[in-house]
Structure formats: structure tokens, C-alpha cells
Design a protein that fits this description.
Distance between the termini: 111 Å
Shape: elongated
Strand content: 5-15%
Helix content: 40-55%
InterPro entries: DNA_brk_join_enz (IPR011010), Integrase-like_cat_sf (IPR013762), Integrase_catalytic (IPR002104)
Low-confidence stretches: 260-271
Structural class: mainly alpha
Number of helices: 15
Keywords: DNA recombination
Number of domains: 3
Protein name: Phage integrase family protein
GO molecular function, one term: DNA binding
Largest sheet: 3 strands, antiparallel
CATH topology of the largest domain: hpI Integrase, Chain A
Radius of gyration: 30 Å
Oligomer: single chain
Mean pLDDT: 83
Order of helices and strands: EEEHHHHHHHHHEEEHHHHHH
CATH architecture of the largest domain: Orthogonal Bundle
Number of strands: 6
Length: about 375
């Protein structure tokens, strides 16, 4: 039955069916109008909308959630994807615009800066859409990122990123009661490794070569493999970590099963868990952050996560403190763009000591 209008109380109602590409759809709802002509206009708009919908091709009907499914099935990371998926669920990509995605970034992270909007919304949304568009499943969508020049962009309320020196790492290690975290913090400081890359390393893999003093990171953030040199000190740390892991494994194998009644000290925490074969023993970064926070509080150190004591400090240690050239530092730290390294990772030294070091009194030479 075609759509018709009828009056019910003060308002005119729609009733009947419309044909969609999925079949007949039953309609019975109020138009919200008290005027019959206005109600008929809503009826016509509803019928025309249904006709346009029937005429759409598969590419025009392709939904954002279908693009997300294709993206994840291709083995891509789901990081930052879920909030965007929830925001655009049920939305056709053919109806999406760059302005819609930019508005979504602001809506999802209202207190963030333009850098966060780009990293956590613009870049992943573009990646999801582009993968399906390249496969011919949906149209391309031009999405422009935010920049510092945008009026809506704002300064971050977070403390500026900083680098630490070896004294921070040593103080952390001195107060650490977890050899995994002690080794991990030293490793990131000396290699500039991202936490995600460090945690993926398998201890029995050829990617961890203590003879050649080298580790290989597989499928890094940019999709490529990368290599890092490790110091003799780090080799010793890894050897000690292996001894510790073996001791923990023996303890685990000799434990009393939980199902039996037992007396004495109960296993808890790490002692109750079978050690895994990851080099640093962690599966997820959440437990790493929790452990680092606890040790920082114990050592009365500022909590800086892993990126600042790691990647930021590696760059500063190489370029600023030891005068290693930018090209070499970029290669050793696996930066594809040396300019990004200089702009975001190398931090200046502060304090009057810098000026004294360069221009301070060094003894005058006698004239003549």
C-alpha cells in the first residue's frame, strides 16, 4: 500500500509502505504537522528519498562499519578505531565529508589539541576509508587534517614533553623491584624503542641476537622492520633477565595447584603466573604503565610514561648531549624523517650551565 496521510487528533500521520533496496518497509508515524499540505510534502519527500536509496549502487551504500571490518581483516591495528566506529556507525561513506570527520574529532576529544585530533581521528579514519576505496568498494573521501593555524586549534594543557638523562634511569632501576621493568627502561633509553615494539620481542627468536648485539623490530608503526644496536650492558641485562625467568618458571612448576587445600604462603601476583616467552615478559602495555607508576612513586621520580624516558631521551642524548649528527641519529632510532626527529624529539638543555659551558671563563691569554 502506497504512503497516505490521515488526521489523528491535531496531527497528520503517515501510513503505508515504501519500497527500499532491501524490500518493502512499513511506515506508521506522525508527520508532526497540523497542516495537510505540509503533511503531503513530507510524504513526497519520504517517497523520493526511498527512490533515491533504491537507485544507489553498492559503492554508494557501503557503510563505515563495513570499511572498518575490511581494515581489521587486513591485519591493521584497531588502535583509536573503536570511538570513530561508534560515532559513524550506520553512516554511508558516500555521505561522509572531510568536515564531518573533523567535527567528529572535536566531538570525541573536546579537550584535546589539533595533534591529538589528527593522530586519533583524522589519520585512522583516512586509513580505514582509503583501504576500501583503493579496493573499489566505496568512493574516496578527501579529509584535511588540522594544523596549528586553524582557529579552533589550541595549546595542550598537558606538560610539555621532556627528555631525561641517565640519572633518571639509574634512580628508577635502583628502586625497582621488577627486573623486567628495570631492563625495559634501560632498553628504551639506549635504543629509542617504542613500547609496542619492545614488548613484541620474543626471547627465543633470531630477532634478539646477543652475539651480534642487535635486535630487529618487526612490523613497526610505519609497517616496516627496524634494527637497533644494543650495548654490552644491555646484553648482560638480558642474560640476567633470562636467569630470573628460569627461576620463576621453576617456582611456577613447583607450585601447589589452586584446587587443593594448602597451608603456608600462597602464590600471588607474578609468582602465580607462568612466565611467557616475551623478552621483557609483558603482553600488554597497561601492566607496564602501572608498574612504572608504582616504582616512580617509590623513587619519588616524576612519572613520564615510556615515550619520554625512551624515544625523546634517546634523541636528546644522541644529538644534544653527545653531538651525534641528525642523519645518524635518525637511522639508529628508526626515524624515517630527520625533520620530525628535530622538531619533536630532540630537547634543548636548560639552565645557566649551558652558557657557562660555552662562554664561561677559561683563562685569559696574554696579549702579545
Amino acid at each position: 500500500m502506497a504512503l497516505t496521510v490521515y488526521k489523528r487528533g491535531r496531527f497528520w500521520w503517515l501510513t503505508g509502505t515504501v519500497r527500499t533496496y532491501e524490500g518493502e518497509q512499513r511506515v506508521h508515524e506522525s508527520t508532526g504537522e497540523t497542516d495537510e499540505d505540509a503533511a503531503h510534502e513530507i510524504r513526497l519527500n519520504r517517497e523520493n528519498e526511498a527512490k533515491r536509496d533504491r537507485d544507489l549502487g553498492p559503492k554508494a551504500r557501503y557503510l563505515f562499519e563495513e570499511a572498518v571490518e575490511a581494515y581489521l581483516n587486513a591485519g591493521k591495528s584497531d588502535r583509536f578505531i573503536l570511538p570513530i566506529l561508534d560515532h559513524f556507525r550506520g553512516t554511508r561513506i558516500s555521505d561522509m565529508t572531510g568536515e564531518m570527520v573533523r567535527a567528529a574529532a572535536i566531538d570525541l576529544y573536546p579537550e584535546a589539541t589539533y595533534l591529538t585530533w589528527n593522530r586519533q581521528v583524522i589519520t585512522p579514519a583516512k586509513a580505514v576509508i582509503n583501504l576500501s576505496a583503493d579496493a573499489g568498494r566505496c568512493p574516496q573521501v578527501k579529509i584535511k587534517g588540522f594544523s596549528k593555524k586553524d582557529r579552533i586549534s589550541r595549546r595542550s594543557k598537558a606538560a610539555p614533553k621532556r627528555a631525561v638523562d641517565r640519572s633518571y634511569i639509574d634512580a628508577f632501576r635502583k628502586h625497582s623491584d621488577d627486573p623486567r621493568l628495570s631492563a625495559l627502561m634501560l632498553f628504551m633509553f639506549q635504543t629509542g624503542a617504542r613500547i609496542s615494539d619492545a614488548l613484541k620481542l620474543e626471547d627465543d627468536s633470531a630477532d634478539v641476537d646477543l652475539v651480534e648485539r642487535r635486535v630487529i623490530f618487526r612490523d613497526m608503526k610505519n609497517g616496516e622492520d627496524g634494527e637497533a644496536d644494543i650495548t654490552i650492558e644491555m646484553v648482560y641485562e638480558i642474560q640476567q633477565l633470562r636467569i630470573w625467568r628460569q627461576e620463576r618458571l621453576i617456582e611456577w612448576e613447583e607450585r601447589i595447584p589452586w584446587s587443593r587445600k594448602r597451608s603456608g604462603k600462597r602464590d600471588s601476583g607474578r609468582g602465580a603466573m607462568k612466565p611467557n616467552n616475551r623478552l621483557f615478559g609483558f603482553i600488554s602495555r597497561g601492566s607496564v604503565y602501572k608498574g612504572i607508576k608504582r616504582i616512580c612513586e617509590k623513587a619519588k621520580l616524576p612519572y613520564l610514561g615510556t615515550h619520554q624516558p625512551g624515544r625523546h631521551s634517546f634523541a636528546t642524548e644522541m644529538i644534544v648531549r653527545n653531538r651525534i649528527d641528525v642523519v645518524t641519529t635518525a637511522k639508529k632510532g628508526r626515524w624515517s624523517d630527520p625533520q620530525v626527529l628535530l622538531n619533536h624529539y630532540a630537547h634543548e638543555e636548560s639552565g645557566s650551565g649551558v652558557i657557562d659551558k660555552v662562554f664561561g671563563k677559561k683563562g685569559r691569554k696574554r696579549a702579545g
